[in-house]
Amino acid sequence: MKDNFYITTSIAYTNAKPHIGFALESVQADAMARWNRLQGRETFFLTGTDEHGVKIKRAAFDAGKSVKEFVDELSDNFKGLKEALDLSWDQFIRTSDKKNHWPGAQALWRKLEESGDIYWKEYKGLYCVGCENFVTEKDLVDGKCPDHKKEPEEIEEKNLFFRLSKYGEKIAELIKSGELEILPEGRRNEILSFIEGGLEDVSFSRSKDKLDWGIPVPGHEDQVMYVWCDALSNYISAIGYGRDEKNFEKWWPAEIHVIGKDILRFHAAIWPGMLLAAGIPLPKKIFVHGFVTAEGEKISKSIGNVIDPYELVEKYGTDPVRYYLLRDLPSDEDGDFSTKRFEERYNADLANGLGNFASRITTLAESVGDLSGQNASEEVLQKIKQTAEQAALASEKFKLHETVSTIWSLIKFGDGYINENKPWEDSNKEVIY
């Protein structure tokens, strides 16, 4: 049995700068990666950027830049989060990378074609540029995409389709059996309901004369890969699929994909279908975090409440930002970012709580000397053991807010223990153990 741990974030779409939602996802995945390294597991943490598609090409045009220049700048923005948020990722994959990504994406396409699950189809329908997805009338609210508040475009062209409908029953079976575990349970139920409603075949290419910014389809040079077919393959291309099979076999299947709930259908329906068609094992788990609101409102450029993680780090520092994201925003539900609550956490937990506790301990250590723990209180030892067990359990369930809360209970206990036993009094010095 492999004792390694391969974890991924979704890859960020380079049509805008990093926002607080991707910062949350990155810090969550980083905490999981660090936890598994502490357990002695060889760990590989992947993140990156998704750089193809109509939306990106239009955003570059609006910015007055070439597409390459545009995505290079934004990709660097996302890459810079490693230092800003102290992320420990091992590789940063870019879908525009012809050396590391394209071979895997094209190798996967060939497998899909060999399975007989790629076919030509004349298509006329509605396309939401914001979602980079074909939609139907029933998906719309008052004729507009509910997420992007824009009317979809009507498209008519001949594309290559993937026979996703063939795999719906098998995907549902794998999710129900737990072989493909979707966390939390509410998201599992949501995707099962969607799959059992019947999966439709999906367009997997765009005509090159309509979109020339993308990966060429092998054997069909007049077509480029549809953005989701291209993007999803990053999870295997980055570790060597199609170019370094030994490394691919070392790390795949992934232990967990960490994603936002808005892309659940792509990851828990289309991606498993692609892997089944190609004869590749499925990832073990998909962990779905919620959305982040700002002061109770949906984050929107038009409202002007977009939260820039770089600005937060500049104002408060890396560790306070990481702490708040893990402590105050539920790992598996929607969470709200509040400046007031952030500053309350900063002052109460970090400055007065941890800061004060650490100061008291170091001061006592200087006066007492040896703190080897040979005469440690049984009560203290039991509390440490209990905290470690509870934190481990919460971490294994990916409830990171509970992990941090549990650890914080130990700090509160320690502070209370010092107050109660007053080790600064000569007769009580031994109780600081």
Q: Class of the domain at 338-433, according to the CATH hierarchy?
A: Mainly Alpha
CATH-assigned homologous superfamily of the domain at 338-433? Isoleucyl-tRNA Synthetase, Domain 1
In terms of structural class, how would the helical and strand content be classed?
alpha/beta
- CATH architecture annotation of the domain at 338-433: Orthogonal Bundle
Number of helices: 16
Unreliable stretches (pLDDT < 50, length at least 5) are none
Mean pLDDT: 92
Helix content: 40-55%
Estimate the global geometry from the Cα principal axes: elongated
Q: Rounded to an integer, what's the Rg over CA atoms?
A: 25 Å
CATH names the topology of the domain at 338-433 as Isoleucyl-tRNA Synthetase, Domain 1
Strand content: 15-25%
Distance, first to last CA: 41 Å
Q: What can be said about the biggest beta sheet?
A: 7 strands, parallel
Count the beta strands.
17
Write the layout of secondary structure elements.
Elements: E1 4-9, E2 12-13, H1 20-38, E3 42-50, H2 54-62, H3 67-79, H4 81-84, E4 91-94, H5 102-114, E5 118-128, E6 133-135, E7 153-162, H6 168-177, E8 181-183, H7 185-196, E9 202-203, E10 205-207, E11 216-217, E12 220-225, H8 227-232, H9 234-237, H10 245-251, E13 256-260, H11 264-278, E14 285-289, E15 292-294, E16 297-298, H12 309-316, H13 318-328, E17 335-337, H14 339-368, H15 378-396, H16 400-421
Parallel strand pairs: 1-3, 1-13, 2-3, 3-4, 8-14, 13-14, 15-17
Antiparallel strand pairs: 5-6, 5-7, 7-9, 10-12, 11-12, 15-16
